[in-house]
Amino acid sequence: MSLIEIYQCLCDTTRLRILNLLTEGELCVCHFQEILGEPQVKVSKHLAYLRARGMVVSRKESNWVIYALPEKPSRELSANLACLQDCVREEEVFRRDTGKRRRLAGSISENSPVCCPPKPSKAAKASSR
After folding, report:
1. Structure confidence by residue, pLDDT tens digits, 75-106
2. DSSP-assigned letters across all residues of the chain
3. What is the number of domains present in the chain?
4. What range defines the domain where residue 91 resides?
């Protein structure tokens, strides 16, 4: 992925919010809808855009699609995701999304279909140690 492609992906607030949420682990489209307060069509469109450019990966579980950051992101993507994590601390919308994700983590797991409780990312697991 070229640096230009990465920046094209990062120039949209919804895509930035999605990437920020994925730094804490994988999520299903229904989780993004609930946290972002956006319709399924909009969320799916942005996830497809990110997936087509290699910024997220997906897997199918029954009727649901689960999204995550790539296991081995490119050097450029890793650097920009690290920068995003530094910058989101300054912006209220990202702090609100992260807080909502954390508050809803238990209820998302309990109320979601059995196939798609969110799993923590490797980065989230490492930071909790």
Report:
1. 888 888 888 888 888 889 999 999 999 888 77
2. --HHHHHHHHTSHHHHHHHHHHTTB-EEHHHHHHHHT--HHHHHHHHHHHHHTTS-EEEEETTEEEEE--SS--HHHHHHHHHHHHHHTT-HHHHHHHHHHHHHHHHHHHHS-TT----B-HHHHHHT-
3. 1
4. 3-105
